[in-house]
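Hi U.,

Before I forget, here's the chain from the pilot set. I'm dumping it here mostly so it's searchable later in email.
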Amino acid sequence: MGQGLWRVARNQQLQHQGYSGQGYLTREHGRRIASNNVSNTSHRKQTQGGIDIYHLLKTRKSKEQEGFINLEMLPPELSFTILSYLNATDLCLASCVWQDLANDELLWQGLCKSTWGHCSIYNKNPPLGFSFRKLYMQLDEGSLTFNANPDEGVSYFMSKGILDDSPKEIAKFIFCTRTLNWKKLRIYLDERRDVLDDLVTLHNFRNQFLPNALREFFRHIHAPEERGEYLETLITKFSHRFCACNPDLMRELGLSPDAVYVLCYSLILLSIDLTSPHVKNKMSKREFIRNTRRAAQNISEDFVGHLYDNIYLIGHVAA
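Structure:
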């Protein structure tokens, strides 16, 4: 009896507030229509905005004409900016359509200097008939020749006047170029120690932590796969260069080139120990500190501990 009276009273309350079944459906329908109208209005605004931007960028002569945007109809600065994102192959293809734009000397000069950062010819008066597009082709050809035979590659660069016959110029070219095969480069530097000396002096290790400086060094001058005389030469040259770049730090820590040499070997051995899957029992931090301080007693325990942490967190110094 009580539940029946409660239902009657509840129904009367809902009818009074306009929440009958039909009223609810009517209001829900109204909300959906309003929501759709707002959505359609927003869509039209977005579409209208897109059309406005499209018209601003459109450079076709007529609506019936179709195809790519004609770069010749754009401001020259914008056209050159678009073409500057292309590599040499795509730029050659673009020259088939926009010959004057794609053959511009500034574009090819940028491609040359972004790939080969230093060449002796950059600092000379260009010869008659010189073009950076032709120079790019010669540099590419010379790099391929170097990757097959380093001596022939260097001779090719010299014969074209691209490089001077100077160890310092060759070292700068190698330092600023990333297209040379590192295995062939390692063979060439092993034979040309005069070029290696100048290449080492181009590195600036000032205010760098020792393991990070060693990584940067081996990114430019790859370490040999096996221990030998060449690896000892590299570490010796690196140690002297690192000390020359950080004289205040060396005095503060009491380090000499011989001590840095010992630390470099310790870092290489630790890198192999921690990263090699064949070594099951990894060297602990305490063991590394003890072994390193036996070889170089003047080094502080905290400094050697930081060296271990760097290798443990970042990885191999000669990877």
